[in-house]
Amino acid sequence: MLSHAAILLGFGLVLQTSAFGIQFTSPTTCCSLLGTEFNGESKVFSVTSTEYGSLNTYWTPAAQQTPTCIFTPADTQDVSRAVKLFTRKNCQFAIRSGGHSYNPGWAGIVNGVLISLSDIDDVTYDSGTGLASVGAGSRWTNVYEALLPYNVTVLGGRNSNLGVGGYLTGGGISFYANERGWAADNIHSVEIVLAGGKVITASRTQHSELFRCIKGGSNNYGVITKFVLETIDASNPFNGFAVDFPPTSTDSLLAGAYNYCTGGSDADPKSHIIFAAAITGNLPYRDVLLMSYNGVFDTASSSPAIRPFFDGTIPGPTVRYFASNGTIKQATDRLSVIQAPGTRYTMGTLSIYADLELFKTLRSIWQEETTSTLRAKSGFMTEFAFQPVGSKWLASSAARGGNSMGITRPFVVVWVQPRWDLAVDDAEMVAYTDRVISRCEQAAKTANKFSKFKYLNYGGRNQEIITHYGAPSVLRMQINKLRYDPLNVFGRLVPGGFKIPGF
Ligand SMILES: Cc1cc2nc3c(=O)[nH]c(=O)nc-3n(C[C@H](O)[C@H](O)[C@H](O)COP(=O)(O)OP(=O)(O)OC[C@H]3O[C@@H](n4cnc5c(N)ncnc54)[C@H](O)[C@@H]3O)c2cc1C
Ligand SMILES: *[C@@H]1O[C@H](CO)[C@@H](O)[C@H](O)[C@H]1NC(C)=O
Ligand SMILES: *[C@@H]1O[C@H](CO)[C@@H](O)[C@H](O)[C@H]1NC(C)=O
Description:
Layout lengths: L1 H8 L2 H7 L8 H11 L6 E3 L5 H4 L13 E3 L4 H14 L3 E4 L16 E4 L6 E4 L4 E5 L4 H8 L4 E2 L10 H6 L7 H4 L6 E7 L5 E5 L4 H7 L8 E8 L1 E2 L4 E8 L4 H18 L3 E10 L5 E9 L23 E9 L1 H11 L5 E2 L2 E5 L3 H14 L2 H4 L5 E9 L1 H9 L11 E10 L5 H21 L3 E2 L19 H14 L4 H4 L11
Parallel strand pairs: 2-4, 3-4
Antiparallel strand pairs: 1-2, 5-6, 6-10, 7-11, 8-9, 8-10, 12-14, 12-15, 13-14, 13-18, 16-19, 17-19, 17-20, 18-19
Helix pairs in contact: 3-5, 6-11, 12-15
Bound molecules: flavin-adenine dinucleotide (FAD) and 2-acetamido-2-deoxy-beta-D-glucopyranose (NAG) (2 copies).
C-alpha cells in the first residue's frame, strides 16, 4: 500500500479527478438522450421493451443486473457516438462482451446504460498477414468456427461460450498458453473508443504504451471494439480431455502436479493441464485433470512430461475425451456445455509458487472450509484448482512485448469456484470463497511461497487485482490513464470492474 501511496503522490491530478464531485445525469435521462441520438435505429431498449429480457442475460444469474436501458451498437461508430454522449452528460454505464464475469456490476449495471457489444461480432481472416480480425462482442465458438476452414485458430477461451472482450482485456488463459503466452500477448492491435468518443488503433507501433496497458487493463482505458489477433496453426488434430483419479491417488497426483509445474509444461508446451478437484454435495472429493494436447495424441505414446498421468505412475487414471484427434472448437464447445450458463457461481483467486507441501495444505484448507452445512445447500458444488504458468509461457509474453500483469517468474494460479442454486445463499458462498482465499494466502505466506499477483479474470468481487501487478506496472498504467483518459471517464462513469489504483 505504501508504494502505491508514493506513486499517487506524484499525481495530484489523479486524486482530483476521482474527487471531481460532478453530478451524474439520471440514468432515465441518459437513456432518453441515447434514444434520441439513435432514434429509429432500434438499438436502445428500455426495461419495458420486448427485447430487454433476452438482451439482459449473464452467464451466471448471481451477476444479473437490471440496467435502466440496454444499448446494442452495430459498429465502432455507434460506440463512439454513445461514449461521446456519456462523457458530455456524465452518464454512468457498463460494458459487456460475453457477460461471463462472475461479479455483479462488472458487465452490468443497476442505474445506468449497459453497452452490449454482441452485435459487433464479425470475424475475418487475412491469409496474407496471417492475422484474424475479431469483433469484441464475438464468442470464441464463432471465432474458432470462422477460422478453422483456413487451418488456423487463435488463443481464446477454453470454454467457447466466453466473450472475446472481457477475456482478452483480462489476460486470457488458453489451451495454447504454454506455447504462446497469455491470449492478450497474441493481440496484434486493437481498435478502441476512448473517453469523449475518439477512436484510435493501438499496437506495438502505434500508441504502444497504451497497447501494453490494455493487456490486463480490463475496461479502464476505453471500449475496445475490434481485436486483430495473431493466429496459430490448426492443421494438426487437437485433443481435449479430462483424467479422473480416485482419492487414494491424491498424494501422488499432487507430486505429479508439482513436476508439471516445475518443468513439465516447458518440456512439452503442446500440453496443457488444469489440476482441479471438485466436491459435489455430500459426495467425496474427486480429482480431475483438465487437459489438452495440440497435435496427434495417444496416452500410450505421450511425452515423458505427461506420461505419468496415464501410465499408472499415478494410480487409477480414467480418460474422458471432449475431442479426440478433433478440433479446438469441439473441445471448447463441449466445455461450454459442461459449464453451461444459468447457474449461480462465484470465484476467488490467489497465486503461489509451486511447492508440494503447500499444494497439500491448500487442498486441506479447501476441504475443511467446505463444511457439511455448505454441502447441504441446494445444488452445491465447489471446485479448487491449480493452473501452472511456466517459463515458456512467460518467455512468449516477453517476446511479444509484455503486458500489464508484471509477472517475472513461473507461478501457479489457484482458484476456488463454488456453485449453488438459490439467491438466499449468495452471501454465504461469497464469504466461503473469501475465507478459502484468505486462509490459503496465509498458508502461502507462512511457506514463503506467496505471489501477490492475482489473475484478473478469476478475481472475486472483494479482491484487489491491479494493485498487485506491482509498482512499475501500476505506474505505467497510471501514466497512460492520465494520457488517454484524464477525466477518468472509465473509472467514474464505469463503476464496475477492477480499477487502477487512484482511479
Ligand atoms: C465457465 C467459465 C469458464 C472460463 N474459462 C476461462 C478460461 O479458460 N480462461 C480464462 O482466462 N478465463 C476463463 N474464464 C474467465 C473469463 O475470462 C472472464 O469471465 C472474462 O471476463 C469473460 O469475458 P467476457 O467477454 O464474457 O466478459 P464480460 O463479463 O462481458 O466482461 C468482463 C469485464 O471486461 C470488461 N469488458 C468486456 N468487454 C470489453 C471491451 N470490449 N472493452 C473494454 N472492456 C470490456 C467488462 O466491462 C467487464 O468488467 C471463464 C469464466 C467462466 C464463467
Ligand atoms: C487444411 O488442412 C486440410 C488437411 O490437412 C487440407 O486438406 C486443406 O486443404 C487445408 N485447407 C487450407 C485452406 O489450407
Ligand atoms: C489419434 O490418431 C493417432 C494416429 O492416427 C492414433 O494413434 C491415436 O490413437 C489417436 N488418438 C485418439 C485419442 O483417438
